[in-house]
Amino acid sequence: MAANHLWRWRALTLEGELQQGTLWAVDREAALNLLSGRALCPLALSRSLMLQKWQPQHCYELFRQLAALLQAGLTLAYSLQMLAEQHPVKQWQALLSSLAEDLSAGCAFSDALKKWPEVFSPLYISMMKTGELTGKLEECCRLLAQQQKSQQQLSAKVKKALRYPAIILTLAAVVVLAMVTLVLPEFAGIYKTFNTPLPLLTRWVMEFADFIRQHIIGLVFVMLFPFIALRSLRQHAGWQRFSQRRVLSLPVMGALVRGQKLSQIYTVLSLTQQAGIAFLQGLESAQESVEGLFWKEVLRDIRERVVQGAPIWSSLSEAGIFTPLCIQLVRTGEISGALDTMLANLARHHNEQTFQHADNLASLLEPLLLIVTGVIIGTLVVAMYLPIFHLGDAMSAG
């Protein structure tokens, strides 16, 4: 389905009514066949560019609305068609219409979602399949929407906490570079007319500015090289394992990343357990939905140990990245038969803890970054104006 294209069309119905819309098709001929299957006479058909990416919030909003419509007693196909007519994004209108047509043709909802792997993760497909088998499709849609929304909010919170220092330090570096390359040369010309020795701080800053101007190209390359190297290494499996494991050992970022991943894993496992999915299948869904090769391999190893007959808590313990609290609660849930409840408690615990870590990081970094940027810029300002004060003293002595 990745080769599909979005097409805009205008056509006449058998009654002569003019209609227009969008649809997904591989080529023009396939698009015309789809219109003919709808008993439409095409008047215009043009390929449309997909200007927007598939947004995660649209996915969980879709399933939240589906749960409400199904609860109201509407059929799934009619609900999808209704949502397609109301959706503000053209590509989603075409997608929802395509799903409704697949359902009308006798295709299962989970099979229809499989045709769109770039939109719906394996977790969506697994949950909808469970809903179809158990007759609890409405409940599965509601639980899935809640889980995805919570994970999206948590990911946004963590990214914001980690992005803030980078933005502040980048702005500070740009200000310093502008002052060194644009402002200091103007002051240097003034200083030459003083015929008096410059203060030590000013001489250091002037030498630093000269060094920056003389080696600006090399310094830019040195600053960009780590980003270029990391971009090229991102696809290397060995580097992915190493970097993702090393991040966990960092003082603050490690706690954030670990909490986010554990929250996602336990939420998926809890969600699948509540829906009646076997634990091994839930592990597979968690493995497919979690990002990062290192975490995928950890869950794969856990699944292999469970398949071989090891207890779940023992398999988690051997992974070496789960906290003692996680292992203890999972062991208790496994013995008492309340594993779904324990997994839900763990998901909620790590979710709240990660939100708290993100808030604490932001409150800790704000004053620290203000001090760092203030010292840097304040030093430059003092170094620029200090010779002017010394000039007044020299003129008074003269």
From TrEMBL:
Report if keyword Cell inner membrane is assigned.
yes
Q: Where are the transmembrane segments?
A: 166-191, 211-230, 368-388
The record's annotation in InterPro entries points to: GspF/PilC, T2SS_GspF/T4SS_PilC_CS, T2SS_GspF_dom, T2SS_GspF_sf
Pfam families reported for this sequence: T2SSF
Any one annotated GO CC term: plasma membrane
**Where is the protein found, in the record's own terms?**
Cell inner membrane
Keywords, alphabetical: Cell inner membrane, Cell membrane, Membrane, Transmembrane, Transmembrane helix, Transport
* Gene3D superfamilies reported in the protein's UniProt record: Type II secretion system (T2SS), domain F
> What's the protein here called?
Protein transport protein HofC
Q: Which organism is it from?
A: Lelliottia wanjuensis
